[in-house]
Write a structure and sequence with these properties.
alpha/beta, 8-stranded parallel beta sheet, two-stranded parallel ribbon, 9 helices
């Protein structure tokens, strides 16, 4: 008589699923492997595999093709976080990826924010120089955004821009004092003055990539906004890897901001 050794699939299905979910979320390669084990694990792993999507020029085209496939609704609805070096078709994203909560894009894709409509979008990160990018009240895709971050520069905002982000609570931009012209230095104060008008704003984190000698230049650039307790000066949070700095959520930065705001309020 052969005695069969109990395997993982002999455990209650809830426990097996919990184990598989944890393993799949820990490594994308594990999720990809589970896709080929059986139909059940494929159903479990699919939404996890597509939960966070990173796109470059080539994969962006492939992603657009995927959105046109019959299985598109099920796969696209699994996407929660999108990090794109090349943003796919705005119309396809708006139509199929309604569950996207966080997105990062580069400066050359900023104009697409005028047409991008994602009802669950709350976190937006914009990377690259913003010298030629302008942010206006017609960017309807930002209507439900609560966290807005500019990873490498100070944005050029229209005076009424805050109408485009009525739910904004967290704002961040990057400033390099000592390497900017007087006009650009004045741009930081103007940007903050506009952002601080947001009724729900909790913090405006300024990541100052600067040597200590430029501290006075930063204080000058902040102008009258320096006294607002919601304005937080923070060193850049060192990324664990090359891609983390462009994470659409970037929780470590916001946690640092929360601590500094609390410290300012207790003074």
């Amino acid at each position: 008589m052969t005695v069969r050794t109990p395997g993982v699939f002999d455990a209650p299905v809830e426990i097996v699923k919990a184990i598989m979910d944890t393993a799949a979320r820990d490594k994308k390669s594990t999720a990809a492997t589970l896709m080929h084990v059986c139909r059940t694990t494929r159903q479990w792993a699919t939404p996890i595999l597509y939960e966070s999507v990173e796109l470059d020029n080539r994969s962006s085209v492939q992603f657009e093709r995927m959105l046109g496939m019959p299985s598109s609704p099920r796969l696209a609805s699994s996407v929660k976080t999108l990090r794109a070096r090349c943003l796919p078709s705005v119309d396809l994203l708006s139509c199929h990826c309604s569950e996207v909560e966080a997105i990062s894009l580069y400066n050359y894709d900023v104009p697409k924010l005028h047409r991008l409509v994602l009802p669950s979008l709350a976190h937006v990160t914009v990377a690259g120089s913003l010298r030629y990018s302008h942010f206006t009240t017609s960017m309807y895709g930002l209507a439900k955004v609560t966290h807005l971050r500019f990873a490498n520069d100070v944005p050029r905002l229209s005076e009424d821009f805050i109408q485009a982000v009525p739910k904004l609570t967290h704002f961040s931009c990057c400033y390099l004092p000592g390497k900017k012209s007087r006009h650009e230095a004045e741009g930081l104060e103007r940007c903050l003055r506009i952002v601080l008008e947001a009724p729900a704003l909790r913090m405006a984190v300024i990541c100052a990539r600067t040597p200590h000698a430029s501290a006075d230049a930063l204080a000058c650039a902040l102008g009258s906004c320096a006294s607002d307790p919601r304005v937080v000066i923070a060193p850049p949070v060192e990324a664990r890897d090359a891609t983390e700095n462009l994470s659409p959520t970037y929780d470590r930065l916001w946690k640092l901001g929360e601590r500094k705001v609390m410290q300012a309020e207790l003074r």
